[in-house]
Amino acid sequence: RALKNGATDYVLKDNLVRLPAAVERAVRGAHDLSERRRAEARLHLQGTALDAAANAIMITRQDGTIRWVNRAFSTLSGYSAEEAIGKNPRMLKSGQHGPELYRRMFDTILGGSMWQGEIVNRHKDGRLATEEMTVTPVRGQGGEITHFIAIYQDITERKRAENTLRESEEKLHAIFDGALDGLLVADMETRKFLTGNPAICRMLGYTLEEIVRIGVSDIHPEQDLPRAIEQFERLMRGEIEIAADIPVLRKDGSVFYADIKA
Fold this sequence. Notes:
Strand content: 15-25%
Number of helices: 8
Largest sheet: 5 strands, antiparallel
Structural class: alpha+beta
Shape: elongated
Helix content: 25-40%
Distance between the termini: 97 Å
């Protein structure tokens, strides 16, 4: 009856010689139970933390079978835990990558190293998403790889913004290079030129490589330099919109007059 109610052992009063061993075994059992409960508490805490993580997490067996996914994975992919567990990550394959990417990934993780890269996955609703993925192998007590942990972060919007920015930069470069007016970019403190467009190269007679080695003081006649610099500084401060009829010195020593805007 006592054992059924939770006692770990009992000693008959006519066999007290068993008492020390029974007490020792009970203490050891209580210690083991306490350790087991602490380990279970740690596992529960870790599991709760992983499930609440903002990034999508998937744990697979060594053969690729999905064992566990967190809520963020379900939110990202559209697959519930019940739909994902027992399946293979191939269900996310988008067809956007050749076999070489997957070969490099598997060679890396099966070799015991972490793999990190960008991959396009297909979600349950058919939407394609660019994701930053990290896959880490997990080893058992014997050193063998038993599981893989994959962490996903959706970077679709970031990639879209990067592409938009790159396209805008390409358009600006095309406009800059195609402008008929001569354009120069100068450092306000040093008054040195940082770049220029083909039109200014033709006007001044310098190559672009030569332009980035000179500055404001090099393209104005010496006697007109104080006025040119004073007008240049007023332009930079926004005090005037245009500096009119400024003498400009070409590489060959000839002079032409220009209106300068900033």
